[in-house]
Amino acid sequence: MASDMVLAAVEGQPERTGAALPVRPRIWPAVVLVGLYWTCSLALPWVGLAMFIQFLSMLASVGLLLLIFTVWWLTNRRIRGTDRLMILGAAIGGGVLSALFSHKVNLVAWLLMLLPWVFTSWTVWLLMARKMSAPTRQRGLLAVLFLTWGAFTLIRIDGLRGDGGAEIRWRWTPTPGELYEAELAQRSREAASLPPLAPAKVLSIQPGDWPSFRGANRDSVVRDTRIATDWKTTPPKQLWRQRVGPGWSSVSIIGDRLFTQEQRGRSEAVVCLDMATGREIWAYKDDASFSDAQAGPGPRATPTFADGRIYALGATGILNCLDASSGKHKWSRDVRADAGAKLPVWGFASSPLVVKGVVVVSAEGDGQKNLLAYRADSGEPAWTADVGKISYGSPQPASLLGAEQILFLGARGLIAIDPDKGKILWEIGNPAGPAMPHSLQPHLIGASQVLIASEANGTTLIDVKRDGDKWTASQHWNSRALKPTFNDFVVHHGSIYGFDGATFCCADVQTGERRWKEGRYDHGQVLLLADQDLLLVIAENGAVILVAANAEEHKELGRFQAIKGKTWNHPVIAHGRLYVRNAEEIACYELPSAPDKKR
Question: What is the DSSP letter of 438?
């Protein structure tokens, strides 16, 4: 009886015996629905929506597809009711089996990617089978549904791109982390035949170094460096390029040493490399690992150098202080325990700030333990401040109206803290909400203004005033012209250069008005070469693009493919060399020097 009912469903017999209805089910609503979905899906990345809004749009479109397609199927009166339920049950059953046997399923990402293909194959088969015999249509529809679900057990999702699309690989291919571990083993075997590295030496900051996240001032500005801009004639020269462990840490450069963080199997590692060759000098490992569905495994924060030491925060909340020359352990703190915090969904991502003898990091603790300061020499707690629970930004040094401060853009908005005692000096609300946390660094504009930006609120210029010990802050303007997600911006000669969603743009500092929006670099990062009015952009696909810092027009001067794979890490220029990395590769390029104008 069951098979008879399915046959009747595919044949399109009417529900009531003797009714004079066409034998074929009406298919055009499904064709229109699936066609509209794919049209919107393909067009959505080009609209320029903010990352979270784009994700919500994808979620809504798949939800509508699921709802309307299901309603259409269940109300198709040219198919018997029991048969509609049977086919729908088979589709649901196939999905359950597929989920059970798929690779490490993240249910939301998995359904967002799979459901449109299931409904598409369902519709395509109904179109193809219109003139086939009833048994063939019945068996074919069931087979297509199960084959579609089954196909997805052969792949794995290695996180999401900036536009919310899945990064797909065959299930049996090695992960970047596995390939890196194999390469580490090979490097270890080859190390015996290589000449020994120079002995450890005391390190100190020199001109041209890059000691912390986004540079000494955490503003992604490169100074005292001039490069050639004709990359067709004199392109950047690759000095070395190699695999790196998963992670979203950038790099710090001190002299001839490079510092970064990565995942090595089940361990988080702080790593020191030789700047000229990429050879490992030392690595310090903790028995810890973290991964999330969007970005994958690895540490998120960038190591900080200060007074001969490296300070690094891992994604699980372990704060290490290490001797920069040798990697010898000095002290550690469990930030998660000290803050009474839960592990954030994106991991701990705060790059440590060392100022006035303390090292400061952020955490998602309860009460007044959101920003934590430790004595830089001993690791003993110094103070805590309440800056709100939800953020993955980093503390920012600032000097406003003659006073040193620490700025932090968190759940409550922008907050200024006294670095000596942790006292809040002033704050201004700019909440992003739990689903769209702040992640970008504040930027000083002169001595009394601060520029902040987020996906939720766009860009805001804030005026700060001081009357003795009394501080006040007010909004100068707010603009939706530039709405970056995790893409930090730079400011040069009265203009803001950064990402509005996936597109590079320029806006006016004093008004917030957009000047231009061009350059499809997806979700990349940017550096400013201030001495030459140049911007160096690294696109999400690992391409490096040289752009003129010109408020009148967007002009590309050169580009080349630096590394492969999803690249969200901040690039670095130090001592005339460009360093880029992502979760798979790290590379060093010598930038061609600008010609001498006197010649």
Answer: B
CB atoms within 10 A of CB 163: 18
Q: What is the DSSP annotation of 21-86?
A: --SSPP-HHHHHHHHHHHHHHHHGGGTT--HHHHHHHHHHHHHHHHHHHHHHHHT-TTS-HHHHHH
CA gap 471, 233 in Å, rounded: 54
| CB within 8 Å of 192: residues ≥ 6 apart | none
Widest pairwise Cα distance in the chain: 97
Statement: residue 86 has pLDDT above 90: no
For residues 100-118, average pLDDT: 80
The class that CATH gives domain 176-203+257-392 is mainly beta
pLDDT in tens, 428-466: 988 776 667 788 999 999 999 999 998 888 999 999 999
Q: How many CA atoms lie within 13 A of 369 on its CB side?
A: 14
Residue with tokens 């350059």: 519
- Per the CB < 8 A criterion, the answer to whether 447 and 466 are in contact is no
What sign has the CA pseudo-torsion 499, 505, 510, 513? negative
For the chain, give the mean pLDDT. 88
Q: What is the DSSP letter of 575?
A: T
Residue 407 CB neighbour total at 10 angstroms? 23
Q: Where are the domains of the chain?
A: 2-170, 176-203+257-392
Give 250: exposed, middle or buried? Use CB within 10 Å, 0-12, 13-18, 19+: buried
Q: Which of 193-207, 332-346, 476-490 has the lowest mean pLDDT?
A: 193-207
Comparing 148-157, 217-226, 280-289, 434-443, which segment has the lowest mean pLDDT? Answer: 434-443
For 464, the 3-state DSSP assignment is strand
The β-bridge partners of 462 are: 450, 475
Span 570-574, mean pLDDT? 97
The predicted structure's pLDDT at residue 407: 97
Mean pLDDT for 173-191 is 88
pLDDT for residue 102 is more than 90: no
Q: Please work out, in degrees rounded to the nearest 5, the angle formed at the alpha carbon of residue 119 by the alpha carbons of 113 and 120.
A: 90
Give the strand order in the sheet containing 514-520: 490-492, 495-500, 503-508, 514-520
- Report d(CA 55, CA 64) in Å as an integer: 14
* Cα 33 from chain centroid (whole Å): 32
HSE, side-chain direction, 13 A CA sphere, residue 542: 15
